[in-house]
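Annotated sample (chain length 278).
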Amino acid sequence: MLPLFIRSIKFLVGGAFIFVLGLALFGTISGWVQDPPKETAEEAMHHHPKELRLPSDGPLGKFDNQQLQRGFLVFEKVCASCHSLSLVSFRDLQQIGYSEAEVKKIAKDWPIKQPVQDPKAGTWGERDNLASDRFPKVYYPGTGTPPDLSLITKARHGGPAYVYSLLTGYSEKPSAEALAHFPEFAKTPDGMHFNPYFANLNIAMPPPLTADDQVTFSDGTRATVDQMAQDVSAFLVWTAEPTMQRRHAAGVAVVLFLLIATGLAYGAYLTVWRGVKH
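Output written by the structure step:
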């Protein structure tokens, strides 16, 4: 009798548990049907990143060194005053086509110097950057610290498309229909800038790319806002994964090897088991 009683108790507890879960599910569904959740401002105004095609896209993608050099110039002239690139060394720029002499000059002329400490006096000073140094960190005097851009295309959904969309999205404004539901967005708060590609719609960073020909490309490419945004996005793809091309090449080699090995193994199988019933 005791085992039967214990089994009965187990069934009762299990049934009660299922009943409570079903009741909670029914309450949730009925509440959602009777009073559906209201659309938030982010849902109404936030845009997904625009489409962006880069030479590095896809499993066979390759970096365009000319584009990467244009993107580095945009970073140097526009972004570097606020954003760090602390995971990249100056000498890494040789991978995108700069000569050793050019890299040394870039490092020496970089406006932010390397901090050094005098161990005897305990004081801090500065020295010129060397090619072996990483890009020095930027200490921004404003409110908050802008993010380091070394891995930004890996850290944001959409990667380079997000960066490109953010840089070119300042000119877009909320629609009249969206403002009718969320009138508080008719006026952007002081010190903020509306951008529908940013997570909470208002961003503290002012538009960095404000006009065409903000920089001058040495290869003759017209420096439109759209072109500069594409190029710096491509450059930040490279900073996030500078070995991507080698990884792609290794992946292709491995796939080809596996295909050939599979063919040879199948041929060996046919030869060994020829005429044998199995």
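Annotation: The mean pLDDT is 89.
Annotation: Strands lie at 114-118, 123-127, 193-194, 202-203.
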